């Protein structure tokens, strides 16, 4: 961030404020880790802080410190809208366009308080007074670490804040596998470990706590996987019926898309998940190397994200969505 922005934010935080912290809709580990990490940091400065998520977050993140204090807009629209519109300061974390919050977009457009954006996605909208937006970072949580340090409050990154930050770094880096993981990322993590995080326990909470139903759903997804070797592509479909048969709960499909990249020779993968209640097919894209799934998602499926990880959506049926995907793929060069 610019030095003058840092100074202005230091001034804003110098006296107690009513602060609202907002992640994107269907928040993942980076969104919840960054918002709760910021929440615990601001509490130490005596701010009246609250995290308001657009909708429910996954059960596998419910162990995060103070996750039980998070308010959910979809469950309490009038109450949470009032809190947002009466805030002195609003932070938006891990997204850079209001539409990423779903129905909450209409409330955010009415906010008159200063908004601070901390985000690492491409092409940010111009809604925030102060923007810490940089695609070079692999996670918003890594950015939050630097944000707090730049404000001069490194001493307030205690074990609780550090645990939240580490959660977002480890999830958005694919456990440090993705190209966005840098030497700086590892230096930040080393500092978090020195502060006292229990990195093994965090990993177990995130990845080694599967339910039987989720493992059955994973098995179904792998059975459904299609391989298009000539296009170096794989994709998975999961219908609403298959979700229901395996007692799906939010978060159960997290990470399944990555299995498509574990196959030798595959560069591009996708997962198509039917959500009948919303009348939508939700799509996640992943790639290796230089194939830009952000551009692919933006161009064809009303989405976006990063070069190697992006999301999209389709209002067609599953059959028609997959047919559209394969038709586009036939005209796409994948090296």
Please give the CATH architecture of the largest domain: Alpha-Beta Complex
Tally the structural domains: 2
Q: Indicate the overall shape.
A: globular
What is the CATH homologous superfamily assignment of the largest domain? inorganic pyrophosphatase (n-terminal core)
Distance between the termini: 36 Å
Task: Please state roughly what percent of the residues sit in beta strands, choosing from under 5%, 5-15%, 15-25%, 25-35%, 35-45% or over 45%.
Answer: 15-25%
Structure commentary:
The protein folds into two domains: 3-207, inorganic pyrophosphatase (n-terminal core); 212-330, Diaminopimelate Epimerase, Chain A, domain 1 (Roll). Helix 2 (29-44) packs parallel to helix 5 and helix 6 (159-172) packs across helix 8. The chain has a six-stranded parallel sheet, sandwiched between helices. A six-stranded mixed sheet has the order 7-8-9-10-12-11. It has helices at residues 3-12, 29-44, 77-85, 105-108, 140-150, 159-172, 183-195, 199-207, 212-224, 240-245, 293-300, 318-330, and strands at residues 18-22, 48-53, 71-72, 89-93, 115-119, 130-133, 226-228, 233-238, 268-275, 280-287, 304-305, 309-314. Helices cover 38% and strands 18% of the residues. With 335 residues, it is an alpha/beta fold. Helix 2 (29-44) links the parallel strand 1 (18-22) and strand 2.
